[in-house]
Amino acid sequence: MTGHRDSGRSVRGFTLVEMMVALAVFSITIGGIWGLLATGASSTRLTDNFLQVQENARYAMERLVEEGRWASGISSATGGTTPSVTLSIPANNPASASAYTVTYALTSSQTITRTVNGGTASQLAADITGLTFTYYDNAVPADVLTVSNAANAWRFTVSVTATAGQQTRTFTTDVFLRNK
Question: What is the per-residue pLDDT across 99-152, written as a single tens digit (0 to 9) for each?
Fold first, then answer.
């Protein structure tokens, strides 16, 4: 007997509608994953940029603080939107055997520069939106001196504000003049 055998099961495939629904769900899932990856990459880029700006600001501040601690006095200071301070560094300091003056300034292009003996300014940090100096007298430590009599200061406070994108950080420290 050669007959056709029917097992009672029918072989059935996917319909076009089922395939379209599956493809739509797959596309939405992949789109969501792609969005998460793109957002993560953008966030990482912003964080890296800000960390670089923050590192440069800290470097500039550390350099200023180190030389400020070796200073014998403040030669001159300016305020306003582009503040600066000029320090007199005595001979036989850790950086040099001879005496020199060093000026730290915030430029109009939002950089901190360092100038030695009135020479060429070298850039220490970029994206600096604020540099503030506050000068204090030794006789009455709480007395704040004006920029015009900063030469009488025994201590000063420096604040550096760094900005990258929407993120801003301010670093503040005191500097005591050791050789005053």
Answer: 999 999 999 999 999 999 999 999 999 999 999 999 998 877 667 888 888 888
- Which long-range CB contacts under 8 A does 56-60 form with residues at least 24 apart? 56/124, 56/125, 56/126, 56/127, 56/162, 57/112, 57/125, 57/127, 57/128, 57/160, 57/161, 57/162, 57/169, 57/171, 58/171, 59/124, 59/125, 60/104, 60/112, 60/114, 60/124, 60/125, 60/128, 60/160
User: Do 110 and 128 form a contact (C-beta atoms < 8 A)?
Assistant: yes
Query: What digits encode the pLDDT tens for the residues 99-113?
Result: 999 999 999 999 999
The whole-model pTM stands at: 0.76
Map out the domains of the chain as residue ranges.
Answer: 39-176
Asked whether 128 and 112 are in contact (CB, 8 A), the reply is: yes
Token couple for 55: 């590192």
Structure tokens at 50: 């800000």
93 - beta bridge partners? none
SS3 137: coil
